[in-house]
Automatic annotation (TrEMBL):
Keywords: Aminotransferase, Pyridoxal phosphate, Transferase. Its cofactor is pyridoxal 5'-phosphate. This is Aminotransferase class I/II-fold pyridoxal phosphate-dependent enzyme. One of its GO terms (molecular function) is transaminase activity. It comes from the Bacteria. Pfam families: Aminotran_1_2 (PF00155). PANTHER family: FI04487P. It comes from Brachybacterium huguangmaarense. InterPro entries: Aminotransferase_I/II_large (IPR004839), Kynurenine-oxoglutarate_AT (IPR051326), PyrdxlP-dep_Trfase (IPR015424), PyrdxlP-dep_Trfase_major (IPR015421), PyrdxlP-dep_Trfase_small (IPR015422). CDD domains: AAT_like.
Length: 392
């Protein structure tokens, strides 16, 4: 037994992006934006490289970035963190998630997440020897409009004394749902009742369209037991820079830092000051990124409705879910394997974000759902629309 089950396979994103490249297909699979980062952010990174900011930065992050992360949390959410002991810079949100899980989950501990879930959650829970329990989104369809939501009671029931962590993700990938206060309150109540720690993946915090994002750490009783995770990849459209961060009380930051030092030791020096600059931008600039994304969302939603799919209009993020069963396509996993050749378009089946039913998951509930990314340039979205129209 050489490796933990499932961990050695390439991720669905790597596999599907490789197929898109090999076939010249429109890549609506992997979620990375085609838009350029704010100019001042790119220029600051270039200047840093020119001026010699190229060696190991301090392990927990460069002081100007830790201070900027703290100021950003204060400005948007009125959360006060001490940059010295309550902020950690990580190599993307991915490292923050892995370090938090590896630091806190002992073999046999339960970790509760929503389902569908971001793929790295299951892999890192498995690497830590944890047991992954999931709370499924309920899918409804009314007059061709899909909607996905989480029932507060389902969350309450999933959390028990065996729960070590609740790994939350709102705004949510892949559903595009923004969890409301009622669900978050149920979650905090359950965490307090069972002494569980909350890890809150908020990488899409600024990419919201109508609903506004509520960080779980702002709820009464949550601050002391919540590790909040952010990412410059999403907030500043620089997914390839791999700069993320953690905010939490000193004991929790120390635990995550302890693991981070053995995973990567430090994170990209020249990018850190650039991200710090990006976190100081006026609110209107984040809103402009979200407005531009909302326009792309509407383009893709129109395309998918136009071919007869049932669509869940997302409240946030990069993705739209579509049910293609009205087109006779009940098996989205099989469809997404064929679609690159048949239509010249790559997308991801929602089942890739689920555990099989036999393994305690809920993949069958999402069997006909496909995730399409709309964070792409106009030419890509237009060509994808043309190809999907011709295919349908
Ligand atoms: N969490 C979620 C929900 C994501 O969608 C992603 C990927 N974009 C990540 C974490 C990883 O973020 P990063 O690229 O900063 O590692
Ligand atoms: N977060 C992106 C997505 O959900 C991709 C990240 C990755 O490739 N691992 O598509």
């Amino acid at each position: 037994h050489l490796w933990v089950d499932g961990v050695a396979q390439p991720t669905v994103f790597a596999r599907m992006s490789a197929r898109a490249a090999a076939l010249g297909a429109m890549n609506l699979g992997q979620g990375f934006p085609d838009t350029a980062p704010p100019p001042v952010v790119a220029e600051t990174a270039q200047r840093n490289i020119r001026e010699g900011v190229n060696q190991y930065p301090p392990g927990p992050g460069r002081p100007e970035l830790r201070a900027a992360i703290a100021r950003h949390q204060e400005r948007f959410y009125a959360l006060a963190w001490d940059p010295g002991s309550e902020v950690l810079v990580t190599t993307g949100a991915t490292e923050a998630i892995a370090a938090a899980i590896l630091a806190l989950v002992r073999p046999g501990d339960e970790v509760v997440t929503l389902e569908p879930f971001y793929d790295s959650y299951a892999a890192t829970i498995a690497l830590a020897g944890g047991v992954h329990r999931t709370v499924p989104f309920e899918v409804r369809c009314t007059d061709g409009e899909l909607s996905l939501s989480v029932a507060p009671h389902a969350l309450r029931e999933a959390v028990t004394d065996a729960t070590r962590l609740i790994l939350l993700n709102s705004p949510h990938n892949p559903t595009g749902a923004v969890l409301g206060r009622e669900v978050l309150e149920a979650l905090v109540e359950a965490a307090c009742a069972h002494d569980a720690i909350i890890v809150s993946d908020e990488v899409y915090e600024h990419l919201t369209f109508a609903a506004s994002h509520v960080p779980v750490a702002t709820l009464p009783g949550a601050r002391e037991r919540t590790i909040t995770i952010g990412s410059a990849g999403k907030t500043l459209s620089v997914t390839g820079w791999k700069i993320g961060w953690v905010t939490a009380v000193p004991e929790l930051v120390a635990a995550v830092t302890g693991v981070k030092q053995w995973l990567t030791f430090t994170s990209g020096a020249p990018f850190q000051g650039a991200v710090a600059r990006g976190l100081e931008l006026p609110e209107a600039q984040y809103a402009a990124i979200a407005d531009d994304l909302a326009r792309r969302r509407d383009l893709l939603v129109d395309t998918l409705r136009g071919i007869g799919a049932h669509v869940a209009v997302p409240e946030a993020g990069y993705f739209v879910l579509a049910d293609l069963s009205p087109l006779g396509e009940d098996d989205a996993t099989a469809l997404c394997e064929r679609l690159p050749e048949e239509a010249g378009v790559v997308a991801i089946p929602v089942a890739a974000f689920c555990h099989d039913d036999a393994a305690g998951g809920h993949a069958s509930q999402y069997r006909s759902l496909v995730r399409f990314a709309f964070c792409k340039d106009d030419a890509t979205l237009a060509e994808a629309a043309r190809r999907l129209g011709a295919w349908a």
